[in-house]
Each structure stands twice: as structure tokens, then as C-alpha cells.
Predict the structure.
Amino acid sequence: MKRVALKFCGGCDPEYDRIAYCEKLHITAGDRIEWARPDDNGCHAALLICGCPRACPENDLASTYPRCIISITDDEEDSEEVIKKLMTIAT
């Protein structure tokens, strides 16, 4: 099981339902990923869910987690592709 830090942007101007997308990712990941807070230790990678293309917190999270995936829309990639990327970089 991989441990992945999960962070959301501030949500100032979201273009989609970030929480619904996160729930879809949780279901898709099943028991392959243990989700954690960004400030938790021992994470293999991070996922930043941004509500719009500005991806404001990108630099903050990328400096903490060099293995970071940024998702800016719920339809840019399907949830299985995001999980596969997380599993690949979290090695």
C-alpha cells in the first residue's frame, strides 16, 4: 500500500466539484493507497486537487513533495489514470 498526501487548493473559484472527484479517487484507489494529510510524515507521493487551471498551491506542495501529481479538472484524466500515476511515482 502506498501512502499519498492529499491536498486541496483554497477553492476560491472551483470549476468542478473537488470533493466528488476526491471521493471518486478514493473508490478507484481502494486499498492500494492510504490517504494522508500533507503535513504527515512517511508519504511516498502527493496529490494536489485544484479547482481551476491556476493551481495556486502548486509551488508550496511541489517543494515539500518532489513526487507530486497535480489534478486541475475532474475530466482531464480519469480516476484510474491518476491512481496509476500515483502508484508509479510512489515507489
In short: The first strand starts at residue 2 and ends at 8. The beta strands are 2-8, 33-36, 45-49, 68-71. The mean pLDDT is 84. Residues 18-29 form the longest helix (12 residues).
